[in-house]
């Protein structure tokens, strides 16, 4: 039986076809980037927030500071070098992020659910997500849950503003912001500033009405809506046997 994590990882990996550098977070982004390196993007260079560039770990890291990332890596940079030269220097094609909430413009919340002063849930916060959003050429987001609590009309708190929100505040970011959102229902996409996220692909068996019911804003549908090809046996074998045989993140 194919799990939701496997489907999300495979679909996200395909979106990395032709990309050269990816700033990957731990979890599903690492699974997707590692699988892409074995399939659609053999020249992909994976960069981690701990400063590791061109990682070639013998097995999946459990944290961004896992020592397994360093062995065989192309370089290990200081934080000022990583964020100042690599990210702000415009050398990241895709920043891979997660979030608790996302809105139609691709703004992300990873700070609090509820009121800032008295939140229902306090989340990990930005980390480097704000810099990744502002400086990557584009950002992909993987969301395990696609429901109105996660896909909201208005964020409880904006941790990582996309270019539309940044421009409204007089800041001109370098990148396009969120261009792809991969979920359990399908894929939402936008080309860049000025566009809302639209539904462009659905998993087999999922309907447009389902996607709209699970989205907290009036979700528009792209003109070329497609059905996502299910994970192949080859992709699943690589994911299960080569990328994550110990099921660190596959669940």
TrEMBL record:
The answer on whether this UniProt entry bears the keyword Glycoprotein reads: no
InterPro entries membership: CoA_trans_fam_I (IPR004165), NagB/RpiA_transferase-like (IPR037171)
What are the protein's GO molecular function terms? CoA-transferase activity
> Which keywords does this chain's UniProt record carry?
Transferase
Keyword NAD listed? no
Q: Pfam families, from UniProt? A: CoA_trans (PF01144)
Q: So what family is this one in? A: Belongs to the 3-oxoacid CoA-transferase subunit B family.
Record's protein name: Glutaconate CoA-transferase subunit B
Organism of provenance: Amycolatopsis thermoflava
């Amino acid at each position: 039986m194919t799990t939701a994590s496997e489907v999300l990882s495979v679909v996200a990996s395909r979106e990395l076809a032709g990309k050269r550098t990816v700033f990957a977070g731990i979890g599903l982004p690492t699974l997707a980037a590692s699988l892409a390196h074995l399939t659609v993007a053999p020249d992909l260079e994976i960069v981690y927030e701990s400063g590791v560039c061109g990682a070639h770990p013998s097995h999946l890291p459990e944290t961004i500071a896992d020592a397994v990332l360093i062995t065989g890596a192309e370089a290990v940079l200081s934080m000022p070098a990583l964020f100042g030269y690599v990210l702000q220097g415009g050398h990241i094609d895709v920043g891979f992020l997660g979030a608790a909430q996302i809105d139609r413009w691709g703004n992300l919340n990873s700070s609090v659910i509820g009121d800032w002063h008295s939140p229902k849930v306090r989340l990990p916060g930005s980390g480097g997500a704000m810099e990744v959003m502002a400086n990557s050429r584009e950002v992909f987001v993987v969301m395990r849950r696609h429901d109105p609590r996660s896909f909201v009309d208005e964020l409880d708190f904006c941790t990582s503003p996309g270019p539309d929100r940044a421009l409204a505040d007089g800041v001109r970011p370098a990148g396009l912001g969120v261009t792809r959102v991969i979920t359990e229902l399908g894929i939402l996409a936008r080309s860049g500033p000025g566009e809302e996220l639209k539904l462009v692909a659905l998993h087999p068996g999922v309907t447009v009405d389902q996607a709209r019911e699970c989205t907290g804003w009036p979700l528009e549908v792209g003109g070329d809506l497609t059905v996502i090809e299910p994970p192949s046996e080859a992709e699943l074998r690589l994911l299960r046997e080569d990328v994550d045989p110990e099921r660190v993140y596959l669940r």
